[in-house]
Specification:
- This protein has about 210 residues and is of the alpha+beta class.
- About 15% of the residues lie in helices and about 35% in strands.
- The protein folds into 2 domains: about 5-130, Elongation Factor Tu (Ef-tu), domain 3 (Beta Barrel), CATH 2.40.30; about 155-210, LysM domain (Membrane-bound Lytic Murein Transglycosylase D, Chain A, Roll).
- It has helices at about 75-90, 145, 165-175, 180-185, and strands at about 5-10, 15, 25, 30-35, 40-50, 55-60, 95, 105-115, 120-130, 155-160, 200-205.
- The strands form 3 sheets. Strands 2-1-7-8-9-6-3 form a 7-stranded antiparallel sheet. A two-stranded antiparallel ribbon has the order 4-5.
- A hairpin with a 5-residue loop joins strand 7 (about 95) and strand 8.
């Protein structure tokens, strides 16, 4: 007789369904993306694998039948409570079916339960979803990301003020923009940009420095 086993690895406990379900179903597949290509039409492109969905219909007996697993507890609502707690607490379980290849990390997505024949037995439908551990992948820095930006050489010229010069005229001549005269005055610590003295030397930096 197959055993349907739920292992809680955090608490190191193991729960076996008291009655072996008559059947179970595990889905397996891949994602498929459909794209439309001009003149060709729809094309299906296979993608990465999907996570398994497992559905089980089971019975939690209220009395000791001869088909109940040896050593199983006769406590139908105790089993219901356990599955509800696993679902509410997002507990990751290891679901195993003996004598099969089924051994999957899962969490309980849903449990539906109830009684139907007056025996006190509880009939439940359980949906399990495969769990995938999220990992952080650390990528190595490429040469481009670690390369320091090269410093651009910036030239600074000295200019001796001539009679009749104005800062706006100097800016128009050297930078092509007379409106930079106030910035040039600030760069040279000239308090009044409209008053300069012939014979004094000022610095003409690169336009990007103004």
């Amino acid at each position: 007789m197959k055993k349907f086993i739920f292992k809680d690895t955090e608490k190191n406990t193991e729960t076996v369904l008291p009655v072996t379900p008559p059947s179970f179903e595990v889905s397996h597949g891949i994602n498929v993306e459909t794209i439309n290509i001009h003149t060709l039409g729809d094309v299906n492109l296979p993608g990465y694998g999907t996570l398994a969905t497992i559905k089980i219909d089971c019975t939690f007996p209220a009395q000791k039948y001869n088909f109940v697993q040896a050593g199983a507890k006769i406590d139908p609502y105790g089993y219901v409570k356990k599955f509800k707690n696993w679902s509410d607490n997002h507990t990751i379980l290891r679901f195993i079916v003996s004598d099969t290849s089924v051994n999957i990390p899962v969490f309980v997505q849903e449990i539906t339960y109830g009684e139907r024949d007056g025996t006190g037995d509880v009939y439940a439908s359980i949906t399990l979803r495969e769990h995938r551990e999220l990992t952080v992948i650390q990528t190595k820095k490429t040469g481009n990301s670690t390369r320091k930006s090269e410093k651009r050489s910036v030239s600074i010229q000295n200019y001796t003020i001539k009679k009749g010069d104005t800062l706006s005229a100097i800016c128009r001549k050297y930078y092509g923009d007379s409106s930079l005269y106030k910035k040039l005055a600030s760069y040279n610590n000239i308090k009044n940009p409209n008053l300069i003295i012939a014979g004094k030397t000022i610095k003409l930096p690169d336009k990007s420095l103004l």
